[in-house]
Amino acid sequence: MALMITDECINCDVCEPECPNGAISPGEEIYVIDPSLCTECVGHYDEPQCQQVCPVDCIPLDPERKETHQQLMEKYHVITAA
Cβ of 49: how many Cβ atoms within 10 Å? Predict the structure, then answer.
């Protein structure tokens, strides 16, 4: 699954630089995650780094974007092949 940022986000800016794929960016009101770039850090780390640093725990799995570990790994290979 891709991750998502909920409206509990306090715009602290700690998650954006932690994303190895550049999937996190400022949105109109809160930070957002581009699901086409989010691999939950598969291929880079054992755990999603944005979740590790978020002080308000507002980055859950997006239930509308279910992906297997294999799909996330394939997405990682596509993103990093450039």
Answer: 19
SS3 of 61, please?
strand
63 token code pair: 């239930």
Indicate whether 4 belongs to any domain: no
Per the structure, the complete domain to which residue 56 belongs is given by 16-81
| Contact indicator for 59, 16 with CB cutoff of 8 Å | no
Residue 75 clears pLDDT 80, i.e. is over it: yes
In a domain, 2, yes or no: no
The CATH number assigned to the domain holding 64 equals 3.30.70.20
The residue whose two tokens read 């770039």 is 37
For the entire predicted model, the pTM comes to 0.92
d(CA 46, CA 59): 16
Question: Does residue 75 fall inside a structural domain?
Answer: yes
